[in-house]
Amino acid sequence: MPGRRRHISDDVKRMVVRMNEQDELPSRAQIRDYTGVAESTQRRILALHNQTGEVSKKPV
Hints:
It is a single chain. With 60 residues, the chain is mostly helical. The protein has one domain. The protein contains 3 helices and no strands. It has helices at residues 10-21, 28-35, 39-52. Helix 1 (10-21) runs antiparallel to helix 2 (28-35) and helix 1 crosses helix 3. The longest helix has 14 residues, at 39-52. The termini are far apart.
């Protein structure tokens, strides 16, 4: 549906990555609660970062 997506800033995406890279807590669920991103979005951010080292797709 149009209009349901919300923009997630690169700063928030980098926060998700940094928090995930910590050896101790927080858990992924706690990261989602803190940042407000959905589980599927969290997975996409981490997958893109693992593949490219970036948190956002660059325009072609």
